[in-house]
Amino acid sequence: MFFFFGLTDLVDLRLIGSLMSYSMVAICVLIIRYQPERRNGGNESEVLEENGHIVERLTLQGLLFPGSPTPTPLSGRVVYVCSSLLAPLLILLCLVLDQWPVLLSGDPVWISVAVLLLVLITGITGVIWRQPQSSSPLHFKVPALPFLPLLSVFVNVCLMMQMSAATWAQFGVWMLIGFAIYFSYGIQYSLVSN
């Protein structure tokens, strides 16, 4: 690929892919740590029977003060939805912060948008933080959940926002080529489908 692109373009393409994959891993670590344990590939109804939980209803009090010290399917879904909301909010915040000269000039619209995004991100992070974490023994657990994975995603997205439009266009073209190959060839000849 060095023959098609310059060295800096190739490094930038590699960097976007790496930062994006690191961000996805951080979000997955965040989500998985708050999910109820599933034994032997059980589904959600089996988890409910094993844990003895009755059907829970989502309330504001339940968001901030969950009734169970262990993760439930409802608390797992809450974390999943909150994480799904945090990803675009962090992207929007990084896009706004990328306009830092406008922010420093004191434009009230941009400052209001940045403050609103920060408040939303802080509130959603607080909801995730209040949910019960899985207590299953692991060799390594990420410390400072949910703050460290979210800080990692924030830094990665901020670094991705520093890439040029040409790098993003090249990344998009290569992703389209990769998806075309995957959907035209990879799915048909996948070992998983056999």
Describe the protein's architecture and organization.
This protein is mainly α and 194 residues long. It is 67% helix and 0% strand. The chain contains 8 helices and no strands. It has helices spanning 7-33, 44-51, 60-64, 73-97, 100-104, 108-130, 147-161, 165-186.
Unreliable segments (pLDDT under 50, ≥5 consecutive)?
none
Mean pLDDT score: 85
How many E strands?
0
What is the approximate shape? flat
Work out the helix count. 8
Strand content: under 5%
* Rg (CA only): 21 Å
Structural class: mainly alpha
Helix content: 55-70%
List the helices and strands and how they pair.
Blueprint lengths: L6 H27 L10 H8 L8 H5 L8 H25 L2 H5 L3 H23 L16 H15 L3 H22 L8
Summed up:
This protein has 194 residues and is an all-alpha fold. It has helices spanning 7-33, 44-51, 60-64, 73-97, 100-104, 108-130, 147-161, 165-186.
Salient structural properties:
194 residues, mainly alpha, single chain, 8 helices, 0% strand
